[in-house]
Amino acid sequence: NAGVTQTPKFRILKIGQSMTLQCTQDMNHNYMYWYRQDPGMGLKLIYYSVGAGITDKGEVPNGYNVSRSTTEDFPLRLELAAPSQTSVYFCASSYRREQFFGPGTRLTVL
Amino acid sequence: AQKVTQVQTEISVVEKEDVTLDCVYETRDTTYYLFWYKQPPSGELVFLIRRNSFDEQNEISGRYSWNFQKSTSSFNFTITASQVVDSAVYFCALIDGEGSSNTGKLIFGQGTTLQVKP
After folding, report:
1. What is the distance between the alpha carbons of residues B50 and B55, in angstroms, rounded to a whole number?
2. For B54-85, what is each residue's pLDDT tens digit?
3. Minimal CA–CA distance to A30: which of A86, A104, A89, A96?
4. Are strands B112-117 and B10-14 parallel, antiparallel or unpaired?
5. How distant, in Å, are the alpha carbons of A19, A79, B117 from that of A65?
């Protein structure tokens, strides 16, 4: 099992650009999450999904969109990148309250 | 509201010292889960332990031990005989909600940066 994979690992965006952070898990987990980690801070929940076709907002959803068309994939979309979105993004899936994290995507918006 | 507070922002110790990282939580739920994660300089999140609210037994795993006290809403983490490889950011976290409303969302503390000097 590859677990939770994220691409890309690093990305630099210009203000106003858009991009999609990819997240895939091969454990057949229904629950998936996107968190962001700002420097010196803990992780905060952006969006989550309890199954294919079902998504909901977390604590910091503004500026992001998600979709969940399959159990495996949970992409995170940034439509108009802003410097405030410079962060490390972690995708996770969970089963029976154990969360499995991807390696993270380090995003810089200049 | 649910909240996790990690008392120390940064701790610096010399190798072989014991060190305790304090975590205090707030929740309205009677059933909840607490976690500790390690984030080494490479950046990934490493799961260390999960505890449910009905199990107040202390846990020991090698040089790591955890003290869970519901009476003080604390879930503290102790490293005995610290080593340089223990240098990392450590996060305490809480899963809120239970039953049909439980979505497994983690609420993280802000992290404690531990530096172990040789």
Report:
1. 10
2. 888 888 899 999 999 999 999 999 999 999 99
3. A96
4. parallel
5. 11, 8, 43
Determine the residue of chain B that is closest to A30 in CA distance: B103
**What percent of chain B shows pLDDT beyond 70?**
95
d(CA B63, CA B47) in angstroms, rounded, equals: 15
Average pLDDT over residues B107-111: 95
The tokens for B70 are: 């519901």
Chain position carrying tokens 């965006």: A13
Token pair 């010399």 is found at: B14
Q: What would the mean pLDDT of A32-45 be, rounded to a whole number?
A: 93
Output the CA–CA distances (angstroms, integers) from residue A12 to A17, A74, A81, A82, A102, in the order listed.
Answer: 10, 21, 10, 11, 19
DSSP codes, B10-69 = EEEEETT--EEE-EEEE-S-SS-EEEEEEE-TT---EEEEEEETT----EEETTEEEEEE
Q: Read off the pLDDT of each residue in B39-46 and give the average, rounded to a whole number.
A: 94
Collapse the DSSP code of B83 into the 3-class scheme (helix H, G, I; strand E, B; otherwise coil) and give the result: coil
How many residues in chain B? Answer: 118
Looking at residue B104, its pLDDT comes to 82
User: Closest to A31 (Cβ–Cβ): which among B44, B103, B108?
Assistant: B103
Nearest to A98 among B6, B50, B110 (CB): B50
Backbone angles phi, psi at B72, to 5 degrees: -110, 10
Would you call A58 an interface residue with chain B, using a CB distance cutoff of 8 Å? yes
